[in-house]
Amino acid sequence: xxxxKIRIAIDCMGGDVGLPVTVGAAWDFARNHPDxxxxxxxxxxxxxxxxxxxxxxxxxxxxxxxxxxxVTMDDPVEVALRRKKDSSMRVAAQAVKDGLADACVxxxxxxxxxxxxxxxxxxxxxxxxPAIATSIPNQKGGATTMLDLxxxxxxxxxxLLQFAIMGTxxxxxxxxxxxxxxxxxxxxxxxxKGNEVVKQAAELLRGSGxxxxxNVEGDDxxxxxxxxxxxxxxxxNVVLKSIEGLAKMIATMMKAEFTRNAxxxxxxxxxxxxxxxxxxKVDNRRYNGAALLGLRGIVIxxxxxxxxxxxxxxxxxxxxxxxxxxxxxxxxxIEELRLSIQGQxxxxxxxxxxxxxxx
Length: 359
Prior knowledge:
Layout lengths: L5 E6 L7 H14 L3 E7 L1 H10 L8 E5 L10 H7 L4 H10 L5 E4 L3 H12 L9 E7 L5 E5 L9 H19 L6 E4 L10 H11 L5 E5 L2 H5 L4 E3 L2 H26 L3 H21 L7 E4 L4 E4 L6 H16 L2 H15 L8 H5 L6
Parallel strand pairs: 1-2, 1-4, 2-3, 4-11, 6-9, 7-8, 7-9
Antiparallel strand pairs: 5-6, 5-10, 10-11
Helix pairs in contact: 1-2, 1-11, 3-5, 4-5, 6-7, 6-12, 9-10
């Protein structure tokens, strides 16, 4: 493979399973996408052993970036950031910083991955905090992009506006939607509903130049009412885990019902095509790979429990983000918003006065 267009750095040691999932998914992906090259960060001997176990005889699709340390799932952020400076996470993020990779992905400790990425890559101008965004399947057959999903528990109205900007850029880059609709998650659609932060955020969004739909409620997430839904990280994480738990409960209950007796087992065989189609549509593995938005580089977080298929989906989202210019789109969206709100009094200072801290 000569002159690959897309280079993705992988924290191969992260996640509940580690090498069998991360390296295995990369090998699967490389065979179907010859324009993608992987930088495999981690224990060199372990990576080479996994490649041998996979029967991989080609070496034109990867490069190994040796790392002597591993950030565990229960490592405190301080340990991951300050003490393990040669971790596979740090090496993967540094590859993006140094221009060796176009993006990086990890299934490891979320807090550590966020902190390391922010420290190494820094924030985009005009963005105060990074946010975690992912796609949730909706009844229209598409997906609703939601953020923040846990990076920021306490948010100001200005932060929620920034999340809307980044979510808009993400949907435009990944799905090609121009001026996607944005909704603000609230306890009611009426303007008077919500706490003071949400009310202030709604005012900022109405004057932002974004395609702001207005307040939306929890059921609008799965209805597909808007393309992007914005909330603080506390609410977003609770919503995401509730949806995932509900999906697992429904799958478990359906399986129990169809295996209850001989009659229901026969019914299950008859309904298998419909059940399989339903399973595929709601399979959260297909939507694995949350973007950490607002950084000076493309960073993707995979579920720690991801299997080989799910991690491959995260790699696909990473590739799409690079191919469709997510970083450039986010930067452009911030600048366009800054221009659109100039002369609007206090609102004009939102992006002009905020610059990302160097952590």
